[in-house]
Protein 1
Amino acid sequence: MSEVYAVISGKGGVGKTTTAANLSIATAKEGKKTVVVDFDLGQRNLDMILGLENRVVYDITHVMDGEVNIKQALIKDKNQDNLYFLAASQTKDKTVLNEEKVEQLINMLKEEGFEFIFLDSPAGIESGFEHTILFADKAIIVVNPEVSSIRDSDRVIGLVDSKSKKAKEGKSVEKLLIINRINPELVDKGEMLTSEDILEILSIKLLGKVPEDKKVIDASNKGKPVILNPDSEAGNAYARIGKRLCGEDIPFADVESVKNQGILSKITGIFK
Amino acid sequence: MLVKQFTIRAFEINIESQEEFLDFFTKNREIIQKYFLIINGKVTENIKKILKEEKILFTVGTLKNNSFVKNCHIQEIKAVEEKESKIFNFPIRSGMEIKSNSDIILLKRANSASSIQTDGNFIALDTVEGKVECNGEFMFLKASPKALILFNGKDISSYLQKNSFFSITFEEGNIEIKEFKRGNK
Ligand SMILES: Nc1ncnc2c1ncn2[C@@H]1O[C@H](COP(=O)(O)OP(=O)(O)OP(=O)(O)O)[C@@H](O)[C@H]1O
Ligand SMILES: [Mg+2]
């Protein structure tokens, strides 16, 4: 059974592409045949984060225009069994997408037997966004713990409820929340929205919490997603989310409390 | 000289036939009684007599294109026909807009940057964080400090700055705001 996950957000730059890349590796590692598709046309960067940029010969528009078949355009990740990637076009922009072409493409991917199909979406304010939610079975909403991100995602959740094909057929698209870039020190100081606050406002199901982690940026630069780094807190969070997507019951780890700061700071703590 | 300012709630009614008007009048008497009528078309002796008996103030003419319309509250006749209340069992999210003539009942939150406008009453069982414009006679809600709550044209947000439910009523031009406490009678 194929499931189509649209990875979306209201505001840009909250971590959709990072999430799509890491989750696709996570489900592939769990043994599921997975494809991740860059739907952010004209602004492709999933290829870089996955370290596959020099392997892109054909992209999504070649397939949609019938110039090549889907098998030719799918790029198999050599370092990861079960993982495939379909690139966005860098030259053509979002106006080349239309409903019919997008539906055909998604059907082709389903026929290829992918169990997980992740669509990396442009931000909710941009054109082209509606195409990723149109044929999604589930939406993964990525937010940062700050008010503007929350409000914009709230609007986008409303769009999922009204614009997706499933919604129009009277069914509902499951909405799953990832809170990304949680900074324990700011939470501790009360300067950041807590997960409870965010869940209360958005009223959707929590899929996972990912801490702020400098290793993420470094990983993107190297084209080696952070999930492959066992020392990364964010990477481990993505691995847990992947397991949850595969049906495992993984409890939510505490990524919000400030970690043990070592003996020195403990001692100074006493004299505060 | 004494100057008084009133906000009048009025119906503008187009009378095409006496029969039709009287039928409408009998059906909606209770609501019409609370309004000032601006009547377009022929006011027959019969209509005049009935309006007088019911002590309903009216004038003949139209407010359309009149500059003072902006300042007074005109309720459309639709309000009378569409009375059933609307119940929302999902959160009203940012960017959503609801406009209605009937009572509105929210079972879930109304989030920041949502907008709800009604000429009926308004009841919300979860926090309201967006904008609510209610021109009915009754409101019941808990507003977040970020919310904008307008009741019959008046901004009452600052009176609701408390994490509890309030019941708010509009009677004869007066707004009464009461904090709702469990066990309140
Ligand atoms: N958990 C994290 N910790 C630290 N940095 C992060 C984290 N998640 C994402 N970032 C950084 O935030 C930036 C934006 O991430 P990303 O490109 O994934 O966002 P996006 O939502 O896809 O953006 P766009 O809307 O432009 O497509 C990147 O530089 C990324 O490395
Ligand atoms: Mg992106």
Note: The first strand of chain B starts at residue 9 and ends at 15.
Protein 2
Amino acid sequence: MKSCVGSTWCRYGVQDSVAMAIAVELRYRGLRAPHKIKMAVSGCARECAEAMGKDVGVIATEKGWNLYVCGNGGQRPRHAVLFAEDLDDAELIRCIDRFLMFYIRTADRLERTASWFEKLEGGIDFLRAVVIHDSLGIGDELEADMQRHVESYECEWKATVDDPERLKRFVSFVNAPDQPDPDIVMVQERGQVRPARADEKHELVTVGPHPNEEIAVAVEVRTR
Amino acid sequence: MTMIDDRSTGVDHADGEPWVEVCRVDDLVAGRGVCALVDGRQVAIFLLHDGSLHALDNRDPFSDANVLSRGLTGTAGDTPTVASPVYKQRFDLRTGTCIDDSSVRVPVHPVRAVDGIVSVRAG
Ligand code: SF4
């Protein structure tokens, strides 16, 4: 999720893009999908958040929000398509709920929204019919699916750190859980640690555990 | 490959290498790997959803890191594979041969489960 600074800090802003970006991020975080999903919210038509290059792009208008879908950056850039105009907050979320769930249900594995959309028979009109006019009669189902996701969300990192059973999977050796991998050797670069290259390793000696014992034995001293 | 609780596949100290008990079957999660330290050698052990066990060296020859036990398991056709988490090359879990570069092979080791205990023989 990317946002511009919006009406809070920008004189051109016509909506609070930061608040909307946070709300959308919190709603869809952790969602399981065929591929990654990128989103952005811009606070006015100047589009500083580049929402039209995202799977889901939201651009503020005087009256509400314009929703763009199926954009992409990277190697094959594609501008997102204008899906609906001047939505209020609730309408916007409902459209995104249905759109994302319809994509998740019908796309191939590892298929981004842009390539999914290119293959979609009937294109944007069909997509609008399904999402806005519920032409397939699955609107409630799609929304219920998304609601289930929202309610069952947990931070998997935190849940793992809090669960001794799950933490067991993070030991280096199943039969020697207290022993770190002796082969992990770290060096400093730009004030950060990174694994030493093979040609660096023989110049290094182990000096003891890294302050973050979860990571590894870190090495910071060169012998010559 | 060894099926769980298949006692017929291993004889203690066959080929001069002893079976080394490394963990319980219950310590394994189907579809994932663990790493065991066997005489200083790092062995990646996988339990697949069909109940089969596989063991190969933990070292990924492409990245020179001990990470194969952390790889994603999957299939290439009918071949069970693990993909290195670093540069994503896949290895045949039964032979250790790299699917994406057949000139590269990772050593594989006999592995078995008897009475719920997983053992490997890694020379
Ligand atoms: S998109 Fe509009 S509101 Fe957001 S920073 Fe740019 S000019 Fe300001």
Note: Chain A has two domains: 2-153, 186-221.
